[in-house]
Specification:
The complex is a heterodimer of chains A (70) and B (267). Chain A has 70 residues and is mainly beta. Chain A has one helix and five strands; from the N terminus they run E-E-H-E-E-E. Chain A has a five-stranded mixed beta sheet with strand order 2-1-5-3-4, with no helix packed on it. Classes of the chains: A mainly beta (70), B alpha/beta (267).
Chain lengths: 70, 267
């Protein structure tokens, strides 16, 4: 299947759920990532049950700090 | 508000813009922006907002200037080492523009003081570097109904979003809770390209200026993601999350609390 991940089209095996996709894409710190599929932010408990399908648009959104220590 | 001759000259490149004009400049001079954190993001934001003639600028930060700060925190200079960041920053802002009233608080933003700190401002810039503080700013702005600009930077990446509480997607719509302790590297552990702070902090200042002017479209309901290595800007569309613990249909966060600090190094 073809997925658009962070704006780039990629070929991926069919039937991946979110944890498998994170692993396949070598996301090193999955705890740092929020996942949006077709414009909807997933809750973490939905990761296992969300099976991706051809044409889905996926965004990995990362926690980022930066700025001033408080 | 009538502008003096010196103000008309100082702000002439603003006033000549039809979207600003004398009226818009007067709005900036009457505007009140709070900058939380006088560090990498807060530095350029404070300098540009002072130069722009934002009449009241609040700065809250408990830290002193450290040598490792100077690679990116451009409001501070080598002779400022060891000085409170709010004092160092206020000096530069007053030197740029004596029209600006700079209000400093040398303390941390906490759940206990947030309401009192935020109440006199129209817009808030989150220039903090750690997750408990970023969640606190987001929650405090939600409860105080203050629009704010969030930004984060790490390595060669930056991201920013503007939030109008109750109307647009908020920080917790994206990130429900701080990541597990130790899961997220900080700037000191992972590094950050210094100019990234300038790019993102300047975008935050732009949002504050647009908000005060009432011009253009704010960076709401989309996360702007910048990659410095590829020089790409992407808009990731977002919408309010019905299960957001802060602004969703059945919120679980109903009062302001300090998030437990993560165990990673937060400096």
């Amino acid at each position: 299947m073809k997925l658009t991940i962070n704006g780039e089209t990629k070929d991926l095996p069919d039937g991946l759920a979110i944890p498998a996709l994170l692993e396949h894409q070598k996301v090193k710190m999955p705890d740092m990532v929020s996942v949006e599929v077709n414009g909807e932010i997933l809750e973490r408990k939905q990761f296992e049950t969300t099976i991706l399908k051809d044409g889905d648009r996926v965004e990995f959104l990362y926690f980022m700090g930066g700025g001033a220590g408080l | 508000m009538n502008l003096t001759d010196a103000q008309i000259e100082r702000y002439s490149r603003h006033i000549i813009l039809p979207e600003v004009g004398g009226k818009g400049q007067a709005r900036l001079l009457a505007g009140r922006v709070l900058i939380v954190g006088a560090g990498g993001l807060g530095s350029p934001a404070a300098l540009y907002l002072a130069a722009a003639g934002v009449g009241t600028i609040g700065l809250i930060d408990a830290d002193t200037v450290d040598l490792t700060n100077l690679q990116r925190q451009i409001i501070h200079a080598t002779p400022d080492l060891g000085r409170p960041k709010v004092d160092s920053a206020a000096d530069k802002m007053r030197a740029i523009n004596p029209d600006v009233r700079v209000i400093t608080r040398r303390e941390r933003l906490t759940a206990a003081n947030a309401q009192a700190v935020l109440k006199d401002y129209d817009f808030v810039i989150d220039g903090t570097d750690n997750f408990p503080s970023k969640f606190l700013v987001a929650d405090a702005c939600h409860f105080a109904h203050k629009p704010y600009s969030h930004a984060g930077i790490l390595r060669f990446d930056g991201q920013t979003i503007t939030v109008v509480p109750g109307e647009t997607a908020c920080y917790r719509c994206i990130f429900q809770a701080p990541p597990p302790a130790g899961a997220v590297p900080s700037c000191s552990q992972a590094g950050v390209l210094g100019v990234l702070a300038g790019v993102m902090g300047t975008l935050q200042a732009t949002e504050a200026v647009k908000f005060l002017l009432g011009q253009g479209e704010l960076l709401t309901n989309r996360l702007l993601v910048y990659n410095a290595l590829k020089t790409t800007f992407r808009n990731v569309p977002l919408k309010r999350n019905p299960s957001c613990p802060l602004c969703g249909a059945t919120p679980t966060i109903t009062e302001l609390k300090d998030e437990t600090p993560a165990t990673c190094d937060l400096k």
